[in-house]
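Lab notebook: predicted structure, single chain.

Context: the supervisor wants predicted structures on file for every construct in the current expression panel, including those that have not yet been purified. This is the next one on the list. No modifications to the sequence; it matches the entry in the shared construct table.
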Amino acid sequence: MVQGLKFVCSDMWKPYLQVLAKQAKQALHVLDRFHITQHLNEALDEVRRAESSRLRAAGKAKAEQLKHMRWPLLRRGSRVRGRVRQKLLALWTSKLATGRAWELKETFSHFWKYKAVFWAQAFLDYWCFRALRSRLEPMQKVAGMLRAHEHLILNWFRAKGEISAGVCSIKYYEHAIVEVQLEATFESAWGALLARRPAGWTQLMPNPKGARWLAGILKE
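Prediction complete. Output recorded below exactly as produced.
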């Protein structure tokens, strides 16, 4: 059905992984960076909310350090400027759990800068080691998740330089809804869709990261 695919990209939802392993096992399966970042942000925010509630309940002055800090914490650190950045750095140097969780989240961004699989794996192992020893349960869960999907995460580096800028998502219905994000050239993705689309509905969803946008619904 999708034998012509060379690369597939998805998040870590188990049904996606099962379908891709069965239907597109010849393709290099890459996990989406966006969803990994989303898990890190959710873990950080969980740490912040729990600590803020705990400090306020105890009447601690340190609760003020977390006030109005949700969005600065979730933004990429390099994009935060001025007084807010000073507050972030003060939070980082404090002994608050939120500061440690933020540092872990920011450190992980360096993972994507590696070019060799060997060094990317070494960084991932060390980051997971630190996260598991952090005593921050949400971050420990993320580390466990990353270790469980390490091979698929490292495929991002194996595919680097071979995937074009064209990105499209194919959503089709066959007993259940399955979404497969395909990273390929516009032409190859379009050709694969027309030649091998499954029975039923096939929907192309626009993706702003793609070089060209596809939108429409085809029905056999």
